[in-house]
Amino acid sequence: MNEKNINLSIDIQGLKLKNPVIAASGTYGFGREYAEYVDLNDWGGISVKGLTLEERIGNPPPRTVETPSGMLNAIGLQNPGVHAFIQNELPFLRRFDTAVIANVAGNTAEEYATMARILDKADIDAIELNLSCPNVKKGCMAFGSTPEGIFQVVKDVRRETRKPLIVKLTPNVTDITEPAIAAQEAGADILSLINTLLGMVIDIHTRKPVLANNTGGLSGPAVRPVAVRMVYQVAQAVSIPVIGMGGITSGKDAIEFILAGASAVMVGTWNFADPACVKKITEEIKAYMIRYDISDLKELVGKVEIY
Amino acid sequence: MTKWNSGIVLENKRIRSTDIYIMKVRLKGDVDPSYPGQFVNIRCSKGTDPLLRRPISILRFDPAENIFEIVYEVRGKGTQYLSLLKQGEDLDVLGPLGNRFCLKEEYERIAVVGGGIGIFPLIHLLESLPEKVFADVFFGFRDSDRILWEILPKKDNIKLYISTDDKSFGYGGFITDLFKENTSDKKYDAVYTCGPKPMMKIVAEACMAKDIECFVSLEERMACGIGACLGCACRVQTENDKIGYGHVCKDGPVFNARKVVL
Ligand SMILES: Cc1cc2nc3c(=O)[nH]c(=O)nc-3n(C[C@H](O)[C@H](O)[C@H](O)COP(=O)(O)OP(=O)(O)OC[C@H]3O[C@@H](n4cnc5c(N)ncnc54)[C@H](O)[C@@H]3O)c2cc1C
Ligand SMILES: Cc1cc2nc3c(=O)[nH]c(=O)nc-3n(C[C@H](O)[C@H](O)[C@H](O)COP(=O)(O)O)c2cc1C
Ligand code: FES
User: Fold this and answer.
1) CB of B55 closer than 6 A to ligand 1?
2) DSSP A195-211
3) What is the pLDDT of residues A197-225, one digit of tens each?
4) Whose Cα sits closest to atom 11 in ligand 2?
5) Does residue A278 have a pLDDT over 60?
6) Phi and psi (nearest 5°) for A157?
7) Nearest to A272 among B220, B229, B244 (CB)
8) C-alpha B120: how far from its chain's center?
9) pLDDT band with cut points at 50, 70 and 90 for residue B186
10) What's the B55 CA to ligand 1 centre distance in angstroms?
11) Catalytic residue among A86, A133, A231, A277, which?
12) How far apart are CA A236 and CA A99, in angstroms?
């Protein structure tokens, strides 16, 4: 096996990725911010900052706090709105050879459907429904945490678009397979997980939470074992492909998710520590494939050997 | 020219018996120049804890030698890691980040008010001040040990006023009081301030009352440092007088005092 005959590309239900490493929504802005530091062509795809129908200003500061090998965030979906994204951000992203995924969040099922209708006509490669943002008062997680809520939203959105439809799941539930199955039944093409785990940090001197939102979403290496376990459980429970994420920092971490059942992975928080990580991660995946004589990454998906 | 991403520690030394260190770093490659007010975001571990980079102001930049200097106070894990770096070790550094202090051609007299770790970006500004501009500089320190004589600018066009919280040197009390006492009869073209928020608020309000241009350099918790995560939000006044959020790492750290809500 040598580098030349290694195939990292994958077609997931029509979402074509030249490599399986995607930037996770909310951690990569609209790509533009990183372009001075990284060759955006290195990414298999970029999932943009969560979009809403109208502009949102987000939560008051402080919005982030570091935790052991992780961080909490409560950004509150600050974004310019779906129309401004299509007009001002998309043309720039399209200059690069990378799949563009529009991550969307709504307050009502109708809002999700409206955004899907708008994005269906836009030059994007997939829509990712964020049904799981823990940092906004209405919507989002309210849908994302019940299978009925998910079923309704996904069904309404499915009617509006033929683009590959990714449904992003919240880990803040007792049984992750229930929402996963509901999304599949309602017509999702792909599932992505995990979004952040709800957490809290208290300043013992002021006796106040550090985040102005009181609570926030935990991400980074600290969540990785939870994420791998959930990806494994979901991949066992559904027949549609899964995109795995949560604390990925290396090719080794990515392979862990792939063995657990992920067809591709997303990298979020680690970009903050190492903006050039995408290249290292894909190189490390390749090195692993050479070592174990694997020519096509697809051969590895879900190949964990359970006791 | 490229953004900074890696350097080698040339010098990293503790300033006397304080918990403040000064570090000199040589950047690799052909790099962008930096300007007063800008900062770097430094990786402070080789693993995942601490996870996020730490923002530190640029104290000086020598474009001929590709060397920059920073001064930092050891507070927690990140700055502790920095303090242990030895000469010759690599430093993973993103920069130069953020905007810069605006110093207009026609300015003749400015004032600078800094407290604690807020004085470092201001020193960069003072060192690059044209000779024709006069500056009254007000720096507040916790105690006389922490007065960083080693890096305070000594130039004919700069007059230094110093206060200490514990009254061990110079004016005993708030730097804002010293500032107000000495400036009531003066007219500045602009005032620059960086330090604790309550201090900047008093300075900004005093300036706005007299219709003097005031620039504040803000601090906020950061994750990416480059405008992608939207974590470092600060309240700003938008065009239609509504409150919105700006981002300290990208729109700042320097803001016109009239445009931010302190
Ligand atoms: C634009 C900018 C420029 C800065 N310039 C300098 C400088 O020139 N020299 C210097 O010594 N420090 C500077 N700081 C502050 C410095 O970033 C923090 O002191 C440092 O991140 C603390 O990291 P730590 O791991 O040592 O401590 P931690 O354990 O992370 O924190 C120690 C304490 O510092 C507080 N803290 C952590 N991060 C920040 C932050 N970003 N802003 C305010 N408080 C924080 C925490 O609440 C905690 O109480 C600057 C900050 C910003 C945003
Ligand atoms: C600062 C920040 C902002 C985020 N914003 C979004 C968002 O807008 N939409 C979304 O679906 N997920 C968002 N996420 C979640 C990430 O996409 C990802 O699911 C999570 O962080 C786990 O991956 P990681 O550990 O690699 O970061 C955000 C995460 C962070 C850290
Ligand atoms: S720190 Fe990420 S946007 Fe400023």
Assistant:
1) yes
2) -PEEE--EETTTTEESS
3) 999 999 999 999 999 999 999 999 999 99
4) A130
5) yes
6) -70, -40
7) B229
8) 4
9) confident
10) 7
11) A133
12) 27
Taking each helix axis from N to C end, the angle separating A177-185 and A147-158, rounded to the nearest 10 degrees, works out to 30
Place of tokens 């880990």: A171
- pLDDT(A134) > 90: no
Q: What is the pLDDT of residues A217-273, one digit of tens each?
A: 999 999 999 999 999 999 999 999 999 999 999 999 999 999 999 999 999 999 999
Which domains occur in chain B, in start order?
4-97 (2.40.30.10), 109-217 (3.40.50.80)
Q: What residues contact residue A95 under an 8 Å CB cut-off, 6+ apart?
A: none
CA–CA distance, A162 with A32 (Å, rounded to integer): 27
| Token duo for residue A52 | 């809403």
Is A133 marked active-site?
A: yes
CA torsion sign, A120 to A125 to A131 to A136? negative
pLDDT tens by residue, A82-122: 999 999 999 999 999 999 999 999 988 899 999 999 999 99
* Nearest ligand, measured from the Cα of B222: 3
Q: Which of B235, B113, B118, B107 is nearest to B182 (CA)?
A: B113
**B32 near A CB under 8 A:** no
Q: Nearest ligand to the C-alpha of residue B223?
A: 3
- Average pLDDT value for chain A: 94
Place of tokens 């061990």: B168
Strands A262-267 and A242-245: parallel
SS3 category, B146: helix
Separation CA A39–CA A36 (nearest Å): 8
Residue A255: which H helix or E strand, with range?
helix A251-260
Beta pairing, strands A190-193 & A208-209: unpaired
Kindly report whether the global pTM for this prediction surpasses the value 0.80: yes
Q: Which of B3, B53, B220 sits opposite A36 (nearest CB)?
A: B3
How many other CB atoms are there within 10 angstroms of residue B167's CB atom? Answer: 12
From residue B93, alpha-carbon distances to B42, B84, B189 in Å are 5, 16, 35
Domain ranges (residues) in chain A = 3-300
Q: Is the CB of B232 under 6 A from ligand 3?
A: yes
Environment class of residue B217 by beta-carbon count within 10 Å: exposed (0-12), middle (13-18) or buried (19+)? buried
Among A307, A198, A188, residue whose Cα is nearest residue A243: A188
Name which CATH class applies to A3-300: alpha beta
Phi and psi at residue B201, to the nearest 5°: -65, -45
Closest CA to B51 of B176, B241, B221, B236: B221
* The pLDDT value given to residue B5: 84
Most B-contacting residue of A272, A277, A279 (CB-CB within 10 A), to test interface? A272
User: Which residues of A fall within a CB distance of 8 Å from B52?
Assistant: 66, 71, 272-273
Question: Which of B229, B249, B250 is the best substitution to test chain A (most A C-beta atoms within 10 A)?
Answer: B229
Q: Give the pLDDT score at A146.
A: 85
